[in-house]
Write a structure and sequence with these properties.
The structure holds two protein chains of two kinds.
Chain A: H1 2-8, H2 26-39, E1 43-47, H3 50-60, E2 67-69, E3 96-99, E4 103-105, E5 111-114, H4 115-118, H5 123-126, E6 129-135, E7 139-140, H6 143-150, E8 159-163, E9 168-169, E10 177-178, E11 185-191
Chain B: H1 8-16, H2 19-41, H3 46-62, H4 64-77, E1 81-85, H5 88-101, E2 106-109, H6 113-117, H7 120-126, E3 130-133, H8 136-143, H9 160-171, H10 180-197, E4 200-203, E5 207-209, E6 214-219, H11 223-230, E7 233-239, E8 243-244, H12 250-261, E9 269-273, E10 281-287, H13 291-295, H14 311-315, H15 317-322, H16 333-343, H17 360-364, H18 371-384, H19 388-404, H20 406-414, H21 417-422, H22 445-456
Parallel strand pairs in B: 1-10, 2-3, 2-4, 4-7, 5-8, 7-10
Antiparallel strand pairs in B: 5-6, 6-9
Helix pairs in contact in B: 1-22, 2-12, 3-12, 9-10, 16-18, 18-19, 19-20, 19-22
The complex binds iron/sulfur cluster (SF4).
Iron/sulfur cluster binds near residues 308, 311, 312, 365 and 369 of chain B.
Chain lengths: ~200, ~450
């Protein structure tokens, strides 16, 4: 198969240079991120500090909800902490999952998260609602920069995903419905000053 | 396909019988096209992105064999099991043997045009394995026992009332219920159950990275991930052309794909599968099915650059007003019309003629495939190879339209006899009556229906 392919391929064509665009100032990135995240159906709260964000987060939780978090800071207080190698099916009735993504992209509000923060891969998809704690300092402008950072050897992963907003579909007459198969909502807690 | 021997003009004629539906279909797709424009205009470097993506894909085509070898080696290192399938039958057999070994009787599938191309569902069902499409649009057409009519929007041709009826029959929703929110919720509940009980999941692949051996799957619904992460076995099927060289190139494609497709800044999920989770298996099937042969056709190989965004369909005046099923091939619209003749020139001789050659497809294509030029070239090949019986019939009828409009009269004077005799549509765009289409929201109503009426006769 490959011999025939080799024979049929066109002459060598060079790769273009990688694209790079200068980073906008932090305040601009933040404004753009919030605008786009809101535009695709996420709810965004802002706080000055991580502690402030946690406080806001606690307030939005409702009694009786089954809540999970992989953040060490939230390892007590009724938060479930997932175990490695657990069968994901046990989380079929999960209400809220809280994560802290590694990179946030201003141009499309995508949040990059890998297996290391997920522990169990199915979690951000199986949960009914997803909460994201985002440090302003992990904001980048575009997907070129995001691809570069998330591709670094130091960022090795077995599974990683960009998540932008709640799951959605418009397959029925192009009417947008949030909550297709994955989370019905995404709430982002954006904190810090970006320095 | 079920459509049998009917040609595009005949099938389009059927679709055109319901004028209101045609208008609705046309407007819906044009609305999506406009969302695409808005998203594209929001990116100052859009044209640079397209050019870069095009050049990366040119490089991929020129070095595909090496890239595939590299990709395979990295993927194996990562613990992914790699299979090669020369054709659709081999692909289906591989899927079946994996499922059989694991004694799996239910497969949950996310969107994969490749498995449609291979007719995997029917094959597996004959072997007693039930296949459940989990993308909402695909599930809807599956319940309706129809093929998808669009590569990104599989049930774009269906009205919500029709979907309501299907759901009433199959999922037990209330009779007469047609609210998209309610219907989507019903599908969510139904498919949750499927995700939770399936031991095997099959997904498509949007991009496979030669440098790292990982592959990327993009969805809005989260269905690919739910299926894959809840199953013991994840099978991913990809055409060999899905390769990109380096991970750093991914940014270019993720920026272009969804903006071109639906005008969203990115899909909700862009998942990178590099290694199987502990206790899980990932099988990746690399499928040729005519691609190597296609690569050998200098004039047509550029269509292998396609990233399946669907923009060329949404913008196409003929697609919008004839519907995806009229193309009687898995992939419809302009891109389908240049891919299909590669597999069977006789069977699909009519498709390259299902175009006005207005060039709108080439203008929106994020990887700059010269779609309308390939359509023109296919017409010549088809005529030369003697599959022209049908083609000529179609093109002569098209000509009568051209001659019926004053605009076209001018063309007749200016272009040579040969063109008029053999390929009346193949004229310099400047003289093409559809030329306006590039900038205008909808085709001149009158002449289009006239055109189809004449084609139908
Ligand atoms: S040919 Fe171009 S526009 Fe059409 S689906 Fe492929 S990538 Fe998109």
């Amino acid at each position: 198969m490959l011999a025939a392919l080799r024979h049929n391929q066109p002459e060598h064509s060079v790769l273009p240079p990688l694209l790079y665009f200068p980073l906008a100032p932090a305040a601009e990135l933040k404004e753009q991120f919030i605008r786009i995240a809101t535009g695709i159906g996420s709810v965004v709260h802002t706080a000055d500090t991580f502690e402030g964000a946690l406080e806001l987060l606690q307030k939005t939780l409702q009694p009786g909800q089954k809540v999970l978090s992989t953040l060490p800071e939230l390892s007590s207080d009724g938060f479930i902490y997932p175990g490695k190698d657990q069968d994901p099916h046990i989380y079929a009735d999960l209400d809220v999952a809280v994560f802290k993504p590694l990179v946030a992209v201003a141009e499309n509000s995508a949040l990059w998260i890998t297996e290391e923060q997920l522990i169990v891969r199915a979690l951000p998809f199986i949960t009914q609602h997803i909460y994201m704690l985002v440090d302003v300092s992990v904001l980048v402008g575009d997907m070129h920069e995001a691809s570069r950072i998330t591709g670094l050897k130091s960022q090795e992963y077995g599974f990683g995903t960009y998540i932008a907003g709640p799951s959605k579909t418009a397959d029925i007459e192009q009417s947008l419905v949030l909550g297709a198969h994955g989370p019905r909502s995404m709430t982002i807690f954006l904190y810090g000053s970006g320095t | 396909m079920e459509a049998g021997k009917q040609t595009h003009p005949e099938l389009a004629g059927g679709f055109n019988a319901d004028e209101q539906r045609v208008d609705w279909h046309d407007e819906t797709l044009w609305w999506i096209r406009q969302k695409r424009d808005k998203a594209a205009h929001g990116i100052p470097e859009w044209e640079l992105l397209r050019e870069t993506a095009s050049q990366i894909k040119n490089n991929v085509l020129s070095g595909l064999a090496d890239y595939l070898e590299n990709f395979e080696a990295r993927a194996l290192e990562n613990g992914i099991k790699v299979h090669w399938a020369a054709d659709a039958a081999a692909h289906n057999q591989i899927v079946y043997s994996i499922l059989k070994e694991k004694e799996v009787t239910q497969l949950v599938k996310s969107k994969s045009m490749l498995t449609e191309e291979c007719h995997l569902n029917t094959f597996l069902e004959e072997k007693g394995i039930s296949v459940i499409d989990s993308d909402l649009g695909e599930r809807i057409v599956q319940l309706a026992k129809e093929p998808p009519s669009h590569i990104v929007l599989p049930c774009i041709h269906k009205k919500k009332e029709e979907i309501g009826e299907l759901f009433h029959e199959h999922l037990g929703t209330a009779a007469g219920e047609s609210d998209p929110q309610v219907l989507t919720e019903a599908a969510r509940q139904h498919l949750r159950e499927v995700f939770l009980t399936s031991k095997a999941a099959l997904t498509g692949v949007n991009f496979a990275i030669a440098e790292t051996g990982e592959f990327v799957v993009c969805t809005n619904e989260g269905n690919a991930d739910l299926g894959a992460h809840l199953a013991d076995v994840h099978i991913a099927s990809m055409g060999i052309e899905k390769i990109i060289p380096e991970r750093a190139h991914l940014g270019v494609f993720l920026r272009l794909l969804t903006r071109s497709a639906t005008g969203q800044p990115i899909t909700t999920y862009s998942s990178h599968f590099k290694k199987p989770a502990p206790g899980q298996e990932i099988h990746l099937i690399l499928v040729d099915n005519g691609r190597t042969e296609h690569m050998g056709r200098e004039d047509f190989r550029a269509s292998l650059k396609c990233i399946r965004c669907g923009a060329c369909m949404n913008t196409c005046p003929v697609y919008r007003r004839s519907g995806g099923h009229s193309y009687h091939y898995t992939i419809s619209g302009p891109i389908g019309a240049i891919l299909a003749p590669n597999l069977d020139r006789k069977k699909y001789a009519d498709l390259p003629f299902a175009s006005t050659l207005c060039g709108s497809c080439s203008n929106v294509c994020p990887v700059k495939i010269d779609i309308h030029q390939q359509l023109y070239k296919w017409r010549q090949v088809i005529v030369q190879e003697g599959h022209a019986d049908l083609a000529k019939k179609v093109s002569m009828k098209g000509m009568s339209l051209l001659l019926s409009s004053p605009n076209a009269y001018r063309i007749a004077g200016k272009s040579g006899r040969w063109l008029l005799r053999h390929a009346p549509f193949a004229m310099n765009n400047k003289f093409n009556p559809w030329y306006k289409q590039r900038e205008m929201p909808s085709p001149p109503e009158q002449s289009f229906s006239e055109w189809y009426k004449k084609m139908k006769k």
